[in-house]
Amino acid sequence: MTLSFELYASGILAQAGSDGEVSKSLLDYIAQGREIGFVIIALSLIATATIVAQMFFLRFARLAPNDHSDELQRLLRQGAVDEAIAYSEQQENDCVLTRIVGGALARCRRSPFGYLEIRSAVEEIGREQIARLHRMTEAVGLIASIAPMLGLLGTVVGMVGAFDTISLTEGPVRPDALAGNISEALITTVLGLIVAIPCTAAYSFLRGRVEQLASDIGETVEEIIAPLELGRASPAVGQAAAPQPQRATA
Known about the structure:
By secondary structure, this protein is an all-alpha fold. It has 2 domains: about 1-15 and about 25-60 and about 135-210, no CATH class; about 65-135 and about 220-235, no CATH class. Helix content is about 80%, strand content about 0%. It has 11 helices and no strands. Helix 3 packs antiparallel against helix 9, helix 7 crosses helix 10 and helix 9 runs antiparallel to helix 10 (about 175-230). The longest helix has about 55 residues, at about 175-230. It is rod-shaped. The chain starts with a helix and ends in a 9-residue tail after the last helix.
């Protein structure tokens, strides 16, 4: 995303320079940005790889596969809670859905209230898992914030260099003596914005996708734990129904 935006911007810059004597390529503009320009481009590569990886990972079929939800629902309908926990703990079945359901079931097994608190356990573990997904998107948001600041830093460095040139030059200053510093000052700002704009859009999109996935996974978990809320597999219910010893009456 960011690379395609940079190529589009480089076409605009090259077209703008075509009216003059020299037309520059994208690499020429990056080189004018010097070290800071290359750092910004490195950030764009990291951002592109991160966005592609998260677009692949943040899918319902990966976070909550249908075969896992179907199997967990079947086990809980049969009252096979231990089997459902064991299924969720298997490494090959690891996903957000099995972490939520398996973790909630295991917590309820240790609780004196049994499965009466299954909903609160699911909500707590669900919030933890969704928070982890949100943290995954923070890298893109961080790059979106850092890139324009680096561009501003390059602008300041370039202007400092321009004023140093003026102070060290005797007599009138030739424009070409300042052109390099001023070009560095402006091009780093352009590069920073070229990276920051698509990263900001991607960050907003990824966070929206996480929220949608949280809603969809929540609905799936509701269907899975429905038998427990109805008391079909609750040890608390079984204990309450167990016959109590009768006192001897005189």
